[in-house]
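Pasting as-is:
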Amino acid sequence: MKVLVTGATSMIGRKTAEELLRRGHDVQILQRGSSDLEVPIFRGDIRDADAVQKAVSGCDVVIHAAAKVGIVGRISEFRDINVVGTQHVMSAAVAAGARGVVYVSSPSVSYSTTPVLGAVSPPARDDVLGHYSQTKSVAERAVLADTRIAAVALRPHLVWGPGDTQLVGRIVERARQRRLALVNNGEAVVDSTYIDNVSDALAAAAERVGVQENLSGRALVVSNGEPRTVASLVQSICSAANVSYAPRNIGLGAAVRLGKVIEAVYKLRPHSEPPLTAFTAYQLGISHWFDITETKELLQWSPRISLDEGFALLAQSFASPTE
């Protein structure tokens, strides 16, 4: 099977390409930057329909992981990449005669300010917070409603692992600077996912999409299935990195109000990342964990690396950093 992976410079995209290669598939990647992966590389932007068409040509499946993530930037930029770019991928896959698309989405398309306690992949909504979640919600619904080609959306939840510059990197940096803070003492219970389990799930989806009829049109949450408190996760990351765990506490209401003020200030600094927003306040302050039974059954997949095993591997990576 020949698979195109978009956005292979991301941790998820790269790990997925490596897992597909391990399974014996032919892989090519589409990304804006260079890569040391020994696969055919198409340099381009998913906003460029012609570049996407060239990269997809001859592929059986597309795993679409490229996206604008984070909390910084104009809504128009998020829309152009996450919505219009995804439209280009879908149209190119149809034109190339591919049998399916695996879309990398996010659980944040399905909730905003109220807790999620053991739900099974709730539908994507309009009233979600932040440009990223809003545009990913629009794109996911368009992907799953497209009748021209089989498609499935996977929603990896709080992905982390060695080399992660997002969740792990930010927590460690703030701990080192003694700026670590928790909302409501970190009592919210959340899912998280070790990176190898995500790449396994995406590869399994690529092998099944367009072949397994009950997969098309579905949105499936991917996690370790081991919900833990935010405080426990942050403390485990700090311990793995051998940095001090001494967080300050802020209540959810105060965090949301402060986040809105900071957002307003940072609108004047569009290229700087605000330390707190209303979105991140709710992400840290409310519980959100999901039942992944359906995901496991449909993909014939299960997490092979537990959270504790993952934290041990993370500690090894900090103890023996690559040159």
